[in-house]
Specification:
108 residues; mainly alpha; 3 helices
Length: 108
């Protein structure tokens, strides 16, 4: 009987799913807006494809629309936009609490 170990499996086979399919997010990883609510269904990458990470309000042509905005400023911007849309202040505050955990802000 032959012993078949993991060394027989090519390394690309083990990690192929992670590398071939980019992670799709339900919310923009900059402002937390649901991507399904984005009129363009996502921002645009440098190659013209639709971003599955950021919304069109945050990301265009492979660059952030507001590259110098801080996480605190983003929370304030989102909260004010939500209030303009009729959300009560406590709800806007609740929805912006998760912004620091989003991909764009994790290392800050």
């Amino acid at each position: 009987m032959t012993d078949i170990g993991l060394s027989v499996i090519p390394p690309t086979f083990v990690t192929a799913n992670k590398k071939t399919k980019p992670m799709e997010h339900k919310n923009c990883q900059s402002c937390a807006m649901p991507l399904k609510k984005d009129p363009k269904k996502g921002g645009s990458n440098a190659d013209g494809s639709t971003s599955t990470v950021y919304c069109s309000y945050c990301y265009e042509n492979g660059h952030f629309v507001h590259p110098d905005i801080t996480m605190i400023e983003m929370k304030q911007l989102v909260k004010s936009k939500m209030k303009e849309m009729g959300f009560p202040g406590f709800m806007a505050g609740f929805f912006t609490k998760g912004i620091p955990k989003l991909e764009r802000w994790r290392n800050q």
